[in-house]
Amino acid sequence: xxxxxxxxxxxxxxxxxxxxxxxxxxxxxxxxxxxxxxxxxxxxxxxxxxxxxxxxxxxxxxxxxxxxxxxxxxxxxxxxxxxxxxxxxxxxxxxxxxxxxxxxxxxxxxxxxxxxxxxxxxxxxxxxxxxxxxxxxxxxxxxxxxxxxxxxxxxxxxxxxxxxxxxxxxxxxxxxxxxxxxxxxxxxxxxxxxxxxxxxxxxxxxxxxxxxxxxxxxxxxxxxxxxxxxxxxxxxxxxxxxxxxxxxxxxxxxxxxxxxxxxxxxxxxxxxxxxxxxxxxxxxxxxxxxxxxxxxxxxxxxxxxxxxxxxxxxxxxxxxxxxxxxxxxxxxxxxxxxxxxxxxxxxxxxxxxxxxxxxxxxxxxxxxxxxxxxxxxxxxxxxxxxxxxxxxxxxxxxxxxxxxxxxxxxxxxxxxxxxxxxxxxxxxxxxxxxxxxxxxxxxxxxxxxxxxxxxxxxxxxxxxxxxxxxxxxxxxxxxxxxxxxxxxxxxxxxxxxxxxxxxxxxxxxxxxxxxxxxxxxxxxxxxxxxxxxxxxxxxxxxxxxxxxxxxxxxxxxxxxxxxxxxxxxxxxxxxxxxxxxxxxxxxxxxxxxxxxxxxxxxxxxxxxxxxxxxxxxxxxxxxxxxxxxxxxxxxxx
Length: 637
Hints:
By secondary structure, the protein is an alpha+beta fold. The strands form six sheets. Strands 20, 21, 22, 23, 24, 25, 26, 27, 28, 29, 39, 40 and 41 form a 13-stranded mixed β-sheet that branches. A nine-stranded antiparallel β-sheet has the order 2-3-4-7-16-9-10-11-12, with no helix packed on it.
């Protein structure tokens, strides 16, 4: 059994005395019980904080760097670590060679108390993991789609770059309650426990644990080299053993803290997780959406000035709200304010925005402008820059060409990278998005956006422009649902201008997405789009097609019948994938359709005035680098 240094014993005893009887009793049991002491253990108490950003383990074996929104708070069951799910984690190390004395080798156990405030596709509370493509190494205790899980890779199951086995519980974890999670591995059998009870086991893994040489050793998150899912909720009393505890010992760990099973864990403070944002603006309605950190009811006050005068309330208590305001006037500026109210008796249970603004759809003969951006992905700095610069142009609404986030199933990216950084503009003008490949068709996209059924394709009017939105991740052929819909809508459209947008390009000079142009030929775009959509665009006089996906700016000449033609005689295609994703490059040889191109972060402003359409491209310093003027003549009507 490891010996705890005298200094740290004194620190523990003093911290227990200062923290209350229940915690002192728990620590006394740790020293007096026959249960083996963990190789390394964490008690989330101020006594173990070194400065503001370093947490020491109980015995001083490891010091972890505390980041993000993690904080130690008092609760009914003692001091705990509370995470709001932004960017918080405790990083204990990055390299296997520096952690040899701590990381288990032949067998292991890991255990701790956890509360969950959110169900995530992937969740983690403790692990040393790499799960990238075929590389699957290390271990993790956490959750998967709301169910407790334990992942492990060993040399006995190694296929060359590691194989992980994920054990998952059958039942989902309860939200807002303490749960004791534990996992063991004895060299042949891995087991998962919830509240002292075995819920899953496997003999697929055997032999020593298979580690990557480099991986983040983390408390409070699922983290590897390309994924980050911070825990949302509280954590308490975590330990790591180099032996496999018996089921009876796991049950003893659970039984030690009856105060946890009887108490309510602390929750993150009430706040707007997603500041109010606007969507689906029509001539006489708009939807105001917002998400709070805890269940609330929401009131939206609105009117023609800042005195408001009218209000609408949510129908139920919940975190995410979509409130449709009807009976508005066409093309009219409005003022509004959102108030969110927490549960009865809560401290600080009221949230209010300041005075915000929105505007309904412009009438058919009114000039207007809109923002176009694509591929914001995982670059909040660029997202904020685009939002702030675009706001200066005062667009009527925002068109997004897909890949709003890098991982559509990762709530943190939606909340803390996209909505947080674009809140200034999204709270004042409606967004009309389309699905990119990085959305993964995840439920979060459909949760955050309320669009006409079936949502992955839809259309809308603004002024004298009709917009058609498609999902090019789905099958595109003459018999597909959305192609049939598009053909019908284009054929019946009487709009002066017709604009289509989807994520993937019909035509692109990209260097390697559709063939390695440094070594051979390229399809120069998506073949199904070229075969089944381009003919519809040309037949029914679509003016402009916007897309993202390729992280560059490119504008084509007008195209008709796979040839460049004169102004107004064909379709202009614009790739605008410079909203934040990792920048790409162009083919070494010039393509037949390309007119103007640029590698760099950017956004577009499109202004429409009757028979004129002005498309301007700006970099994120606000400098204009391309402009296209389109005009309508009697012949082009």
